[in-house]
Amino acid sequence: MQSDLGVLADRLDNLIEAMIVAGDLLELSDVATDDPDAKGTWVFAAPPSFVVRRTGSIFLTGIAPDQDIFLPEHLALRVVRSHVTQFIAPEPGEDLIEQLIAHGLHQLSESVWLRSPKAQTPEQLIQRFENQLASQPTCGPVSGLEILDRDTKVTYYRGRWGAPRGQTGTFVARRPQEFGAPLWSFAELADGTLKRIVDLPPRHFRWRGCDAAWHLQMAIDGVAGHPQQYRRSATDAGVRFDFFSPLPLWAQRRLMVLGHERPRSRSLFAYEIPVAEAAEEEKNLQENLWLVPTDA
Question: How many CB atoms lie within 10 A of CB 192?
Fold first, then answer.
């Protein structure tokens, strides 16, 4: 059994990941700092900000240093919290945007905050990464290397990871580093032996290494004929989507802003989306992430 310390570490990792997705924390690539010792694995508190949703509700994000809350009490009491997300709805005749700006919050454009990579086919995405990998010199073994096995069950994400066991081909991978979380990579193997490796994310990619890796794995699974899946079900308030593998940052933010996170049910995580938004979001899942629905 996992130790209490290990369980706590996993919970903290999951919380940090969720706060990065929500925009409360920013990784080094998203900020400017004069600290020469800052490492790529460092995270920083995002400034208090807000995004206006299509429904009129406002998504709050960011952290105020040395403060538990960055809103005056009369507004703070109206905030609705769901896991790491926070929302506030304007009252009739109220200019809530002006009030938030007056209290020092920055308005973020929804189109910029939710910006996603350029649309492409899964074959195009794989080819781009394989071209980068092919340009790397051959290398020796890497201790502790793990790969995401494309021949494993797509609905059990944690079970897909493991040490190479004689596989040949290209694989999403993780390799340990002396300090910090493992580095995301794309690796070429021959009979389980590492031949080439390139770290993720690629240059000029504005998202995280894990986002590049998860998107690439979605393409690999789709082209291999066993695409990743989601489960769709109707609820009293809208449409629920259960997911079995992590989503890239840009995809999960869409679900956060348009809907609400719900307790998982035989899945990795779940969101409930209003009926009016569900069809468009399902189209995005299928066309840009190459996911398919399942009844499992």
Answer: 13
* DSSP letter (8 states) at residue 81: E
Q: Which three-class secondary structure string do you get for 5-71?
A: HHHHHHHHHHHHHHHHHHCCEEEHHHCCCCCCCCCCCCEEECCCEEEECCCCCEEEECCCCCCCCCC
Measured between alpha carbons, how far is 173 from 216 in angstroms, rounded to an integer?
Answer: 11
Contacting residues for 5 by C-beta, under 8 A, at least 6 apart: none
In 110-248, which residue ranges form alpha helices assigned H by DSSP? 110-113, 122-134, 209-223
Positive or negative CA dihedral for 188, 227, 204, 32? negative
Distance between start and end Cα atoms, the chain? 28
Give the predicted TM-score (pTM) of the model.
Answer: 0.74
- Distance, CA of 266 to CA of 263 (rounded, Å): 10
Task: Tell me the mean pLDDT in the region 4-9.
Answer: 71
Helix axes 249-258, 275-288, angle to 10 degrees: 170
Per residue in 89-140, pLDDT (tens digit) is: 888 988 999 999 998 899 988 777 777 888 899 999 999 999 999 999 999 8
6, with CB counted inside 10 A (0-12, 13-18, 19+), is: exposed
